[in-house]
Amino acid sequence: MLFFWSLLSLAIGLAASQHTPQTGSNLAELLQSMPSCGLQCLSTAIAASPCLATDTACSCSNATITAEVNECVTTSCTIREQLRTKNTTETICGHPVRDETRIVSYAGVIGCVIAFVAFVLRMLSKVSFPCEGAMRVVNNLWWDDAIASFAMAEIIAISVLSVELANLGLGKDIWTLLPYNITQILKIYYFDEDLYLTALPLIKISILLTYLRVFTSKKFKIGVYIVIGLNLAYGIAFLLVSIFQCLPIHCAWTRWDGSDPTCKCNDINAQGWTSAAFNVILDVLTLGLPLPMLWKMSLNKRKKFLVMIMFSVGFFVTIVSIIRLQVLVQFGHSQNTTWDYRSVGYWSTIELHASVLCACMPAIRNLIRKFQPRLMGSSVEESFGTKGISAGRSRNSELEIGPKTPQVQVFPRKRDPDEQDFIPLNDVHGVAETTSTGQTYGHRSNMSDFQFFEEGKPDPTLERPVSPLDYRR
């Protein structure tokens, strides 16, 4: 691999830089650290230039010297010698050391914390621990939650590895790092790619499985299964391509110095672009699939606003995917991998964390609705049963002594139009049972005892989809 970067900072003289003065002993040590091939190239270029050997400013800014040394070093030195030469000249010329390792680690840690909190809230919305009666865990977990859990485990691993990558030097110029660090960074990056290519489609599949719990249309379900299949195909295909991007496999992290002529690798740049492009298409398909169903619904303003928030997060993920596509321009062909890969790394982690947040938002909404129903566009009665139903259930469990009217009618209070359910509750009629002793007991009932539609008419839930904001699975 030939390094084409400009050797702009050349240590041509025996004098110090105008920016960072060097003592004679320091300068001698720097020159001794430079490979003999690089030092020879510098000496030859200086002899043919108008710059004096003591004029460091002239030597460091002369484009002709830079071009000649660049050509000489790339043909006369190995890649490791090129890096040592570059590091020495940068130091002598006093150029600042670039360091964005904190961005890499912060993006991984902060994003992971937010995603994990969202995931925990999702699980809490599906699992409850009753304080009365039989002490058993009541859960409503399904395959979408299982797949989301597996994806979250992979994302935690990616986030932890991002901290290790930053500690090794991802976010610094490659010539400032030890060869061991470079190899380790590329090795961890290789496994990060594999985790990314499996976690991302798993999150989309989790979202699609949630659709199946919400919508009942057969045509819509067929579309969901098709998109699930596309995500599975994407994950399997690109995972295999990533694993075998180089033969032998270890060449993916050892070939950077060009020391192994047996390494054969794919066009990593084309591979990355293709993967990112298909990912954007799958993002659009996954998020756009329920839009026609939602368009048919009669949502109040508050619920429309909540739907907009959820889908805005989803489209933010798509925007991040597009941004990541742009930063892949140099991916695979970079000569300064530990610097150029930093942006690909943190945009990938941001994309994963935002995807988890998007997948968990409907469940988080349901959890908040239990405690702040009006905030979520619901009434208290919608979350814990209507006032009429609560009264009916209390009446049914209460012992009534003496002559009571056996026919009891319970009517829910009229609510504000902004609080109405998608399918309003009709008047509920309960009939009391009389025992042989003349004592009247209310019969026990549950939500299935009450009709949500008029008798003799088809269930309206079969005619139009139920909003994802109101599913209680």
UniProtKB/TrEMBL annotation:
Keyword Glycoprotein: yes
Cysteine pairs bridged by disulfides in the record: 37-77, 41-72, 51-58, 60-93
Major place of residence: membrane
Membrane topology: Lipid-anchor; GPI-anchor; Multi-pass membrane protein
Region (Disordered): 451-473
Domain of life: Eukaryota
Binding annotation for heme: 55
Protein name, per record: CFEM domain-containing protein
Transmembrane segment boundaries: 103-121, 142-163, 195-212, 224-250, 270-293, 305-325, 345-364
Pfam families: CFEM (PF05730), Fung_rhodopsin (PF20684)
Signal peptide range in chain numbering: 1-17
Lineage: Eukaryota, Fungi, Dikarya, Ascomycota, Pezizomycotina
InterPro entries the record matches: Extracellular_membr_CFEM_dom, Rhodopsin_dom_fungi, SAT4-like
Cellular compartments per GO CC: extracellular region; side of membrane
Natural source organism: Cercospora kikuchii
Cellular localisation: Membrane; Secreted
Keyword Disulfide bond: yes
Gene Ontology MF terms in the entry: metal ion binding
Keywords from the UniProt entry: Disulfide bond, Glycoprotein, GPI-anchor, Heme, Iron, Lipoprotein, Membrane, Metal-binding, Secreted, Signal, Transmembrane, Transmembrane helix
